[in-house]
């Protein structure tokens, strides 16, 4: 199974892209645990909550990965909405520090491709989004891009409207999979 992570600042179409890709490739996607957590516990969160969210995200990913072989071809991609890099950025951007557990586990998690969603979509307000201003969105995007540049897993910048994003992401996944069987 290939693991493909979709990351980027809030309101950049990550969840929509995960769902589109999973539907297209006939496979599964792991939702963002933070949203589930915040729905249950409220939008106010602490530094400690981010560690709980990070552990919940990893547990959710592991659950989907464990059930994957029974439901999908082993050579299919599993799409993951958010990983520990997102948690690292979130911790550091809001609290100026990061839990050692997150840093230690970033090193041990293995992925095959990152799709970095750019900030060129209009920001959409919802009860959990915090940074509608362009300056914060640009800062966050550049933090993610710096991370991508300084790690070893291949990555692709995903930009444009929703259709362009899907086409770019689909092409990147096909290239990774080394096959045109999913036309």
Which features would summarize this protein structure in a list?
183 residues; 54% helix; globular; Rossmann fold
Full CATH superfamily name: P-loop containing nucleotide triphosphate hydrolases
In angstroms, what separates the terminal alpha carbons? 19 Å
What is the number of beta strands?
Answer: 5
Any idea what the shape is? globular
Helix count from the secondary structure assignment:
7
> Measured on Cα atoms, how large is the radius of gyration?
16 Å
Characterise this structure.
The chain is an alpha/beta fold and 183 residues long. The protein has one domain (2-177): Rossmann fold. Helices cover 54% and strands 12% of the residues. It is built from 7 helices and 5 strands, in the order βαβααβααβαβα. It has helices at 14-25, 33-41, 47-71, 84-95, 100-108, 134-149, 162-177, and strands at residues 2-7, 29-30, 77-81, 113-117, 155-158. The longest helix is centred in the N-terminal third of the chain and has 25 residues, at 47-71. The two termini are 19 Å apart. The mean pLDDT is 91.
Short description:
This protein has 183 residues and is α/β, with parallel strands linked by helices. 54% of the residues lie in helices and 12% in strands. A 5-stranded parallel sheet has the order 2-3-1-4-5, sandwiched between helices.
Could you outline the blueprint of secondary structure elements for this entry?
Layout: E1 2-7, H1 14-25, E2 29-30, H2 33-41, H3 47-71, E3 77-81, H4 84-95, H5 100-108, E4 113-117, H6 134-149, E5 155-158, H7 162-177
Parallel strand pairs: 1-3, 1-4, 2-3, 4-5
Helix pairs in contact: 1-7, 3-4, 4-5, 4-6
